[in-house]
Specification:
This protein is an alpha/beta fold. It has a five-stranded parallel sheet with strand order 3-2-1-4-5, with helices on both faces. It has 21 helices and five strands. The chain has three domains: about 5-125, HUPs (Rossmann fold), CATH 3.40.50; about 130-160 and about 205-285, Serine Threonine Protein Phosphatase 5, Tetratricopeptide repeat (Alpha Horseshoe); about 295-470, DNA Cyclobutane Dipyrimidine Photolyase, subunit A, domain 3 (Orthogonal Bundle), CATH 1.10.579. The chain starts with a strand and ends with a helix. The structure holds flavin-adenine dinucleotide. Flavin-adenine dinucleotide binds near residues 237 and 274. Flavin-adenine dinucleotide binds near residues 242, 278, 369, 370 and 381.
């Protein structure tokens, strides 16, 4: 048995613990661990710029754990697998399934081709708690609303499998001399804008495990209320590690289950449930990233104001809470969930810019950019998803700031132009008396923008535009 040569194809499972496909590979023979950057998918599906940087560091970290044996390639997977199979007399190929529509299509082709070559294939679900097809309503149709999906579907389903142990590969690795190497993937940008962003992170499986353990020990006990406060570290910040599979979702689920059950733990587990829901939506609606799930939104008269879009992207809207969120994204590659909702609502409702433009910007700027979560999040905020925030729910960034950043620490951190303004005016500096602004040297329209839209007026216009959709439905 040990003479067999097996490929483990790493994709979004960049870890050695609880990796079912890798675990299987080690039981079959000697393992050739590979990673393929497939830049062939449509522009929409290509990995965004910030995520490419994360991927670079994540591959390096994995390569270190594999005794520098990770074989890295760029190109068409069939061409690459074909030459490796011949060169190393490979008998089996193992990988963990990816649920993005383009991966599903690609895999069908690869599976057929491998079967023709008489190569054994071993596929596993390692990125979701439940097989996405297994959670269905009694009538066999997929759930469209989160609460019944999670409570009736997931919670009545079998308990997610326990994590597998860490594999020990050191004596069992096949080294490939002909691979291209991580540097050849050109994941690091020029000029190097990534350095400031990565100062906020430390990538890799070991770090991910430590972060989970600290979160469970110190922060989850305040999760239910604390998760809405962007200035505090009450959420796990595990999203990029989960996306790249440096930590498995089952590891997180079972570690949290070990804690005493309470409303904080339940609330955290239900957020993992939202992730499962997003993947289910994507699986049953492969156009989720680009097509309104509620088709009446196809008639919506989106604005094409490029100045507004640029101001939003750069955190220069003159609305401090929105600007803080957009600058957090730009500087750190991450944005707190509360802010994702506030800036999303502002783009789609106050500026009436198509949610897909926001989705694309997030895709490029987030280190946790995830096709399912990002598309579902944007459809939710725009009101065009199946279980979406209703169109008349328009977040007011001033009241949101007062409620969720009550001491102003978050806004002051990312909008230093307003650092000294009294808290009373921090979220709406245009309301501050001229004497205060003059005294602090704040000149609206010069060293901090005037608001690009009037919040009240744009809210009314949005409500009118959204309610007209109802009448237009045929
Ligand atoms: C417009 C918009 C876009 C989003 N884009 C993404 C994205 O590209 N990638 C991404 O991972 N999440 C996305 N989210 C969901 C959510 O904002 C992030 O998962 C969360 O902020 C990550 O921080 P955390 O790890 O500290 O979360 P925690 O609160 O600690 O939650 C733990 C994990 O649960 C999952 N999760 C939490 N909230 C959600 C949610 N609402 N939907 C789906 N899964 C969730 C994530 O995997 C997260 O890491 C988006 C939300 C919105 C409103």
């Amino acid at each position: 048995m040990i003479d067999k040569s097996i490929i483990h194809w790493f994709q979004k499972d960049l870890r050695l613990t609880d990796n079912p496909a890798l675990y299987k590979a080690t039981t079959l023979g000697r393992v050739l661990p590979i990673y393929i950057l497939d830049d062939s998918p449509s522009v929409r599906d290509k990995i965004g710029d910030a995520s490419r940087v994360w991927l670079h560091h994540s591959l390096n970290s994995l390569n270190d754990s594999l005794d520098q044996s990770l074989a890295v390639f760029k190109g068409d997977p069939i061409d690459i697998l074909s030459s490796l199979i011949d060169r190393h007399a490979i008998t089996d190929v193992c990988w963990n399934i990816q649920y993005e529509p383009w991966c599903q299509k690609r895999d069908l082709k690869i599976i057929k081709w491998l079967e023709k070559k008489n190569i054994k294939i071993h596929l596993f679900n390692s990125s979701l708690l439940w097989q996405p097809d297994s959670i269905k309503k009694k009538d066999g149709t997929p759930y469209k609303v989160f609460t019944p999906f999670y409570k009736r579907g997931c919670m009545n389903s079998s308990i997610p499998e326990k994590p597998l142990p860490t594999v020990n590969l050191t004596k069992n690795l096949i080294k490939c001399e002909t691979h291209q190497g991580i540097e050849s993937l050109n994941l690091i940008p020029a000029p190097r804008w990534d350095k400031m962003m990565m100062n906020n992170w430390s990538v890799g499986e070991v770090r991910a495990k430590r972060l989970l353990s600290t979160f469970l020990k110190e922060n989850i006990c305040q999760y239910k209320t604390g998760r809405d406060l962007p200035a505090q570290l009450y959420t796990s910040r595990l999203s990029p590690y989960i996306h790249f599979g440096e930590l498995s979702i089952r590891q997180i689920w079972h570690a949290a289950q070990q804690l005493q059950a309470d409303s904080n733990t339940d609330c955290f587990l239900s957020q993992l449930g939202w992730r499962e829901f997003s993947y289910n939506l994507l699986l049953h609606n492969p156009d989720l990233p680009c097509k309104n799930l509620k088709s009446k939104f196809d008639l919506f008269p989106w604005s094409n104001n490029q100045d507004h879009l640029k101001a939003w992207q750069r955190g220069q809207t003159g609305i401090p809470m929105v600007d803080a969120g957009m600058r957090e994204l730009w500087q750190t590659g991450y944005m707190h969930n509360r802010l994702r909702m506030i800036v999303g609502s502002f783009l789609v409702k106050n500026l009436r810019i198509d949610w897909r433009k926001g989705e694309r910007w997030f895709w490029d700027c987030l280190v946790d950019a995830d096709l399912a979560n990002n598309s579902a999040g944007w459809q939710w905020i725009a009101g065009c998803g199946t279980d979406a925030s209703p169109y008349f729910r328009i977040f007011n960034p001033v009241t949101q700031g007062k409620k969720f950043d009550p001491e102003g620490q978050y806004v002051r951190r990312f909008v230093p132009e307003l650092k000294k303004i009294p808290l009373k005016y921090l979220f709406s500096p245009w309301e501050a008396p001229k004497s205060i602004l003059d005294h602090l040297g704040i000149r609206l329209g010069e060293n901090y923008p005037k608001p690009i839209v009037d919040l009240k007026q744009s809210r009314l216009e949005a409500l009118e535009a959204f309610s007209s959709l109802k009448q237009n439905v045929i």
